[in-house]
Design brief:
- With 290 residues, the protein is an alpha+beta fold.
- Helices cover 30% and strands 24% of the residues.
- Among the domains are: 60 residues, no CATH class; 118 residues, Glucose Permease (Domain IIA) (Distorted Sandwich).
- Strands 3, 4, 5, 6, 7, 8, 9, 10, 11 and 12 form a 10-stranded antiparallel beta sheet that branches. A two-stranded antiparallel ribbon has the order 1-2.
- The chain starts with a helix and ends in an 8-residue tail after the last strand.
Length: 290
């Protein structure tokens, strides 16, 4: 019984029908199409699957998906993330500038400064929050007058032999290993040495000290200056990037800049290194092997 019903249904699906288009006035046959329920079902299913595939393709691979609720552009997310990082960087930079200006105001007003060592300090954990003025005793005043009177008649000049209290008693760390292409020539107003090294080489501080300048000048490009003990200052010019900011304490051998070719006076990637002692430029090659 069931088999007969199935065969009858199958025959119905395969029955042929003719779809005729006729002229209403003349009854002339214009077009005809032979159809069966099975063909109509297959054709309809194929059209529906094609439409579904087309919609999925448009949603997945074309910008039209942005107009569908719930879908967003991936590039927009990346841009928002990048803008968030830039905003955070600008906020930190503004905070640093405000702190720097506040310190300058305190220096001008003669107030005590809170020293920010940024992880590096003269002492391993030393931190100074205020300035304490101690009263002088009579013996202290006499000793000060005696030392100051002796200093008036003594010239503390660089000592190349390493005796006395001269600059030769320091152990200088080589700021950059390379080839010296221009020597110390104060008569030509060249107060340092030029050192050529491979690209992206790091420049290191020659002694422990505090960064007193870290910025840009039109002639010498990115420049960083470090104040060391015993009235010694080292200067590093024509860098491509500066790794330390003003007020930061650096140790000997610590990276402070990247070699570069910045500034109008630079003709190629190199480091112009100067060494000043008691306000006078000295020849770095006398104390450092590059």
């Amino acid at each position: 019984m069931q088999n007969k019903k199935k065969k009858k249904l199958y025959r119905r699906l395969k029955n042929k029908y003719r779809l005729v288009v006729m002229n209403d006035d003349t009854l002339e046959e214009k077009a005809s199409l032979r159809l069966s329920p099975l063909n109509v079902f297959v054709a309809g299913g194929t059209i529906i699957l094609t439409l579904i595939t087309l919609v999925i393709y448009l949603v997945a691979f074309t910008p039209l998906r942005e107009y569908i609720p719930g879908y967003t552009d991936l590039n927009m997310r990346r841009n928002l993330y990048a803008l968030t990082l830039k905003a955070d960087s600008l906020e930190n930079e503004l905070a640093y500038k405000d702190e720097y200006i506040d310190k300058i105001k305190k220096v001008i007003n003669g107030e005590g400064l809170r020293q920010d060592t940024s992880g590096s300090s003269p002492a391993a954990s030393g931190r100074y929050d205020s300035m304490i003025v101690l009263p002088r005793s009579r013996e202290d005043s006499i000793l000060r007058l005696e030392i100051e009177s002796q200093d008036k008649y003594e010239l503390n000049l660089p000592d190349k032999k390493g005796t006395g209290n001269g600059i030769s008693n320091f152990f200088f760390f080589t700021p950059l290993k390379g080839t010296v292409t221009n020597i110390f020539a104060p008569a030509d107003k060249h107060f340092g040495v030029d050192i050529v090294a491979p690209k992206n080489e790091t420049i290191k501080s020659t002694l422990d000290g505090t960064v007193i300048f870290s910025g840009w000048t039109s002639e010498t490009g990115y420049v960083i200056e470090v104040q060391h003990g015993n009235n010694t200052v080292s200067i590093y010019k024509h860098n491509s990037a500066l790794l330390k900011k003003e007020g930061m304490y650096v140790k000997a051998g610590e990276a402070i800049a990247i070699i570069g070719n910045s500034g109008e006076l630079s003709t190629g990637p190199h480091l112009h290194f100067e060494l000043w002692y008691n306000g006078t430029p000295v020849n770095p090659s006398d104390y450092i092997a590059f």
